[in-house]
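ZP: hey, is the pyridoxal-5'-phosphate complex queued? I don't see it on the tracker
AM: it wasn't, my bad. submitting now with these inputs:
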Amino acid sequence: MGIREVQASEIKMNRRLIEKLVEENGTPILVIDHRRIRRNYLEFKERLPRVQVYYAAKANPEPEIIETLYGLGSSFDVASLSEFNLVFEVARADMPLQNEQDFVWRHIIYANPVKKVDSLRELNLYKPLLTYDSIEEMRKIREHSPDAGLLLRIKVDDKKSVVKFSNKFGIEPENAIGLMGQTLGEGVKVEGLSFHVGSQCNDPNQYIRALQNCSEIFREAEKREYQIGETFTRGYPVKLVDIGGGFPVRYNGSEHDFRDLANSLSRELDRLFPQEEFDILAEPGRFIVANAGTLVSGIMLAKHEGRKVPTYHIDDGIYQTFSGVIYDHQHPTFKSLKSGKRKRSFVFGPTCDGIDAIAGNNPYIESLTPAILPHLEAGDLIVVENMGAYTNASSTNFNGFGGAKLIHINQTTSKRLKN
Ligand SMILES: Cc1ncc(COP(=O)(O)O)c(C=O)c1O
């Protein structure tokens, strides 16, 4: 992401609110705006009306976020037993016991293709929907979670996505039909197919090609008279297509437009997967929460004397809320509430480690460009927007710096609005 001049007035959050929250809580704080989360969820639903949203809890697993989405009728994608329990606890508080299994079946997918045996045993109580991509995992599921529903994850092209998964997950499409046959042959049912084109996907064709691969596999399965699909929801077999996450967010304006992607996807879904035969699921994470998070950090030390490049040490860094710089390949845009002539500036986090450089001067991430900031002093605030996804989720306590305090604004009732 390139360098660009940023004016204080471009900060979307109200300046007085930022100052008030800092006065009350100190820094660093990560402000989560639930109005934005609701807007993102509703936009996703509006532009892809056929698609059931399973929010990927890994992007930001704050219980308050799960509650807001649960209230809107969202379903959830979880990757571990602890994420499963997190979602289940929120839902359970709101429903009679006899609805629990139904909720899990209809509203949770455990979409990590590799699961611990203990987790499988515990999950089996709820008859969950799981993904797999190997015969070995299928046999584990058969033994330890025999009541589960299964989606076979295929490998897809993720070259044009910022975060890639295909090095690790997914069976080659040409081998999928073989594994499907073996699965059915060993007495395990298959509900459908899944894929993930990589996170922050910048090429709609990656989705389109993945959908075409799925369609071909379903066609071949039909030719071979494989019985696939789930019968629980509509009383007759409906095949599931899980199109994963990857929906792009506007970080700096050069990203692919979600509206355009949604149009292409809708067309292709209707062309390839008739509504009577197929249900479509998606697992957006970043799209739902990224722009809902604004980080406010304080400058602990400002070094100017004898330096060409002003250097700021702030109270949040690469081991904490900026962990996405490493794991999510983020290039944050730093803003200030102050105005004045802007200069290229280095920004460091609070730990004793040289990798803890979040704007410029990072020997391990050369592409991390300096921030463009006015002259700042210790005590001034740094504001970074679009920090809601893959930030606090991977924050550590390294060096005893625990990362930003989370502050939730614009929450409404957690009561479920619809099922
Ligand atoms: C299986 C799965 N689903 C969904 C997601 C969420 O992806 P995104 O945040 O790009 O929407 C991820 C991200 O790691 C994932 O691994």
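AM: back. Residues 35-289 form a domain with the TIM Barrel fold (CATH 3.20.20.10).
ZP: great, adding it to the tracker
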